[in-house]
Amino acid sequence: MKAVLQDLSGEELLSLAEEWGLPRYRAGQIARAAARGARLSEFFELPAALREKLLCRFEDEPVRIREVLSAADGTEKYLFSLADGGVVEGVLMRYKYGNTQCVSTQVGCRMNCAFCASGLGGLVRDLSAGEILAQVLVVNARAGATPAKRAVTNLVLMGSGEPLDNYENVVKFLRLVTAENGLNISARNISLSTCGIVPKMYALAEEGLPVNLTVSLHAVTDAERARTMPVAKAYKIADILKACSYYFEKTGRRYIFEYALIEGENADEAHAEALAALLKGRPCHVNLIRLNEVKERGLRGTSEKAAYRFLGVLEKRGVSATLRRRTGAEIGGACGQLRAARLAEQKGEENPSRGE
Ligand code: SAH
Prior knowledge:
Layout: H1 10-19, H2 24-35, H3 48-57, E1 63-70, E2 76-82, E3 87-95, E4 98-102, E5 106-108, E6 123-126, H4 129-142, E7 154-157, H5 167-178, E8 190-194, H6 198-205, E9 212-216, H7 222-228, H8 237-251, E10 255-261, H9 269-279, E11 284-290, H10 304-316, E12 321-323, H11 337-346
Bound molecules: S-adenosyl-L-homocysteine.
């Protein structure tokens, strides 16, 4: 694989211009062309010779939209091809206040949570900062962005991969995407979701990037959590909560817990009471998620009625919570489902991964 141009910050582009003996304004031209989401061979504002020289060193199209699935509610799901043939997926959800894109941070994932499709084939590799950024650039362009107005206004790092297991690249991506001369998306409009890699949660608190921290909790005791999330053997819930408090102290940002309701596993009234006791008085919010059932995983979600009952307990106990609206469930909205389905098809099996 060649290098990825989108990995370069404004300063790095300036050094490249200097190294190649180009006037400084070329760095700005290249940055603006990349921000447009164009492929390198379409950077027509550059002289052809410079374009050719760039193409010798950098990938023409590090991230390409290979497939789009659209849902009735306007949600779009993308399958992206990477330059080495790797595949990741993403989603664009349309809301009144703007468009939220869900991006992937790794090809596959090594966390192997029992409900999740992303970990089915293990971790293939980390994405570079520029590969994460390029997902946003191409979707932003597709969704009708102009140089004056971005179309993607909010980001969630909830696609395939564990962001804090690819820490350096993810932090660099956050710096690139929030840069004033980049897409300039405010850190406050970005949510990073983690399964709870405690030391990296502390590190993130020190970065001066006040993104919203979201933790996938999905259980109320360490023993129960370890049944669905192997990472629970490494990090205890009590230590995750301490790291969240530290994050709040440092950034002033309220944190969020994701809790997917799984039938017979974590969704009884007793679990709701225990969750309320665990979180009471904390500056946090709970997102209850209806499980997107992944066939290979064999776990079932709760009924809608049970989900509302669970929510009612949290509310009664004074814990801020919402039951997340399901967007795009019919297009395999959950992490890794589309990729798993396509990889299975490539192996000649029938599509096994559609939840609903
Ligand atoms: N690795 C990160 C981010 C990716 S997953 C993390 O663990 O947070 C984004 C969210 O979707 C997580 O809360 C994850 O637990 C949840 N999730 C994964 N598979 C799901 C499924 N099949 N149904 C519902 N939520 C799921």
